[in-house]
DNA sequence: ATAGCCATGTAACCAGTTACATGATTGA
DNA sequence: TCAATCATGTAACTGGTTACATGGCTAT
């Protein structure tokens, strides 16, 4: 139940409409927390009912009116309280690994193609993160300090994507070889 | 909607009861797909209604009767069909990263303690994986070949846990320093 | 014309979680 | 006596997804 906290963090960084928030879920926090426009609008409604956010109607002549949300004092308090509670570690759901686990139950070419496809997706992901990192360092020190939090999540994403690429490469090599390794791969790759 | 496929893969590896499956979700596939006993029993019921699995009642004198499930021919076909369909990449939900993203909104000590707590959890996770890897290599080559799929998922898990530890260490260091890095960390850590 | 963007919403459904229930056996 | 393990299940609820709806503006 952290969707609301993702939204509160986003709104505290910068007020915005449901539509704005939805788009922000395509990057930044979106790299590790996903939400559809339905979830955003409904959660905003709940947050408003609970008086954790408020909005100003922003009439626009050429486009639909916007509800620009921001935190209330109670919202800020709720967010601070959440920061002090422990979050439970996430429960992973990696469907691709179910396939890899059951590698013996399918034909190798289909699985190899699927692994390669995912590897490619992670390469693109990694490229996006690297570009974002480059942009981060193009800023002055004051701005870098302000965005230290987002930068640190970016670093997590870089390691995540990079290691998927490594793992999928390894998996493809060993599956192609059709035989298990004789011993743990030495060095960093062995988990040491 | 891959819970059913996780169950089908598990049952194809070895028939078992709902209770068995539930326990198997504590390791192996459980390292990357979680399920409660409710989900298991209800999914088994659905799979049975759809005639993808069948069961034999195993009466036991001292303990409750077990329903020992296994795949039907249709179940095996459904599983093979799934292996040929692409799986969508997972939508991550990492609540801890919401906190890290919003680091500026809370006091450092609370956040640092939370990061350290998670780092510790990942250290324990990594230790489990390493032990499992050790056991894998203690087996003969034929058995290693049979369990190549599970081994490869273990490798993914090792990289995953190891990198969380690295990322959380880095985050704690930079947050403690109270200042952003001057330039990307050189070498492998920089995303290269 | 056709599609896409901006901006919001209702309704139905499905997946996942939590609480509650049963009942025998084993070990502290 | 109390808790844990084995083994299964019903019921209520919450969170998340998909489909459908509106309506003007802009670009091809």
Detailed description of the structure:
Two copies of one chain form a homodimer. With 192 residues, chain A is mostly helical. Helices cover 60% and strands 6% of the residues of chain A. Chain A contains eight helices and two strands, in the order H-H-H-E-E-H-H-H-H-H. Chain A has helices at 3-13, 18-24, 37-49, 73-84, 95-101, 108-137, 141-146, 148-177; strands at residues 53-58, 66-71. Chain A has a two-stranded antiparallel ribbon. In chain A, a hairpin with a 7-residue loop joins strand 1 and strand 2. The longest helix of chain A has 30 residues, at 108-137. The radius of gyration of chain A is 22 Å and the shape is elongated. In chain A, 36% of the residues are buried. Chains A and B meet through helix 1, helix 4, helix 5, helix 6 and helix 7 of A and helix 1, helix 4, helix 5, helix 6 and helix 7 of B. Chain A binds a DNA duplex (28 and 28 nucleotides) through residues 1, 3, 17-19, 35-39, 41-42, 45, 60, 62-67.
Q: Which protein chains make the most extensive interface, counting residues with beta carbons within 8 Å of the other chain's beta carbons?
A: A-B, 80 and 80 residues
C-alpha termini separation of chain A:
35 Å
Order of adjacent strands in the largest pleated sheet of chain A: 1-2
Number of strands of chain A: 2
Radius of gyration of chain A: 22 Å
Percent of residues in beta strands of chain A = 5-15%
Quickly give the structural class of chain A: mainly alpha
